[in-house]
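Protocol step 4 of 6.
Sequence for Aminoglycoside phosphotransferase (APT) family kinase protein (Saccharothrix ecbatanensis) entered exactly as in the expression construct, tag removed. Do not edit the line below.
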Amino acid sequence: MTGVEEVEVVVAHSRRATLRVGDVFLKVDGDPAHADVEVRAMAMAPIPTPAILWREPPVLAIAAVPGKALGLLGEPSSASPSAWAAAGAAIRTLHDAPLPQWPGPSLDDVAAELDIECAWLLANAVLPAEVIRRNRKIAEAALRPWEPVFIHGDLQITHVFVDGDEVTGVIDWSEAAPGDAMFDLATLTLGHEERLDDLLAGYGADANRDVIRAWWSLRSLVASRWLIEHGFDPDAPGCEFDVLRSRMRER
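Step 5 output, structure tokens:
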């Protein structure tokens, strides 16, 4: 056959899959609530987002955004300091926008999830106990009341696209909700801690660096079991386990 686009599997696990066909991404999710949030969040977000082409549950079709991802977890980011600053400015614009009208994670929910995941990590000995306990202590700084803002909720480095020094699109909005601003900043710089200054040059100097560092530990602790159980490797170079180990060198 001719004229048929190659189908690329971007990500696939038991809960959802994303396929790319040419310049179209097809997101297949068994829970329609995720697509509901994504569609509503992109309509509200005051920053560049992908165009929605059509929706036929359980499939959501969106257009590719121009440019390339800010970087990859586990690899140095080749994006310029100005591109990181532009990402920071875009995130600030999002955080200053009106709140979504659906609930986000509560402090009690985050604390309970952290306890559960740390207990699993210790019981299964996937990391030395001292690494888990040290990061659990660091993570406590994130467990404080926060003033909720409009957060992306899953602002991984591969979800922010830039062309030169301009943000061209932010993708994957299914976790968007009211939440802690420092969580978004920590998620984007997870494994790329050396780019935090560049990011904050655009975001603003009022960011709490201690809380961002706490979220690096907390997110890595909480995400590790899910990654393992869904076929991903948190022990790959530069990924979550390396983030947790790196905290052991801090005093």
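Step 6, annotate. The two ends are 61 Å apart (CA to CA).
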